[in-house]
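Let us practice reading a record.
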Amino acid sequence: MRSIPLRQLWFQVLIATLAGVALGHWAPSLGASLKPLGDGFIALIRMMIAPVIFCTVVHGIASARDMKSVGRLALRSLIYFEVVTILALVIGLVAVNLWQPGVGMNVDLTTLDTSAVDSYVATAREQSVVGYLLHIIPATFFSAFVEGEVLQVLFVSCLFGMAVAAMGEKGRPITDMLEHVSAAFFRIIHFLMYLSPIGAFGAMAFTVGKFGSATLASLGELILMFFAVCLVFTVVVLGTVARLVNVSLLRLLVYMRDEIVIVAATTSTETVLPRVIEKMEGAGCDERVVGFVVPAGYSFNLDGTCLYLTVVAVFLAQATNTPLDLWDQLALLAVLLLTSKGAAGVAGAAFVVLAATLGSTGTIPIASIAMILGIHRILAEGLTFVNLIGNCLAAVVLATWEGAIDREKLRATIGRR
């Protein structure tokens, strides 16, 4: 019988997470005060995201030396992202209409304390499609790295990579240097991962200590329903995609177990972005593909966030007895196709986008989002898991589509046997 994997990161994070739950339950005040532990760990990883993306993307594009392939990859990525996110939106909409978790709650909006969500509503009102697109362009080349915005870093990285590729042999020293610098940054990520159990402990202790079990019990049906939808989407949709590219979904989950546990504890996929890039390259996906697809997927391929937005929006309508006919729901779906793309680089991203969506449609009372503030972090565990696995699969799909995958590595790691 195999011994307990005490030295494996996923097991350490799991134990720390359970300890955080226990502390938050039995000593809520102390648990809530440990929020800086989780925030500190996330901040440490976030400071490494910009240089890792820059080195990976620039090295990948410059090594390709073929701008047509870069443009083709971008177009194919966007097509794939749109198809899968539309599926997520439709599945979420169908599921919440069939399950109807909010029917019969008869919530009176005048009894809700909306003061806690005012900051989210204010942020949501600042969001717009044009503003979101213009925000991709940083104020200066270096401000993208200062702000740490994933899309801004990806934008300047693509420009720099194309410039280096256009230099031909003169750009080779830059490419070689970035390869070594990238190795150093990934080594730093490995060092920081030793702190992930501490971050997971603090994040989970805060969540349980701050919001408590009473809030979870009152909205338990919504939580149960959302996790069931996430499971169905993962098994049916992502499982089908995995089979089409000859990947075993189960082996992928095992391969990404460290990242899954960290994401579940911190409810942030940013904490594992550098590790996802590294692991998907280890699974046989070409560096050029992974370097573009994974960072872009963090803004355009948010399957779990799409499930969250449709399920919660319709739930709030049901709970407040707001009538939504077929055309209202189709209009909501159309708005979500746009607003869901803005769920990156914003604190409480999915919650802000939800507020922005309700404000745009004007059908569902925006004040109703106060109902789910207490369980948002719990729901985020499900949506971040789906986002993570969806982006891992996206890297394999696009690498396969581009003919840029090492079949031997794929078979040895996550391939179907």
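A brief commentary: Residues 9-413 form a domain with the Proton glutamate symport protein fold (CATH 1.10.3860.10).
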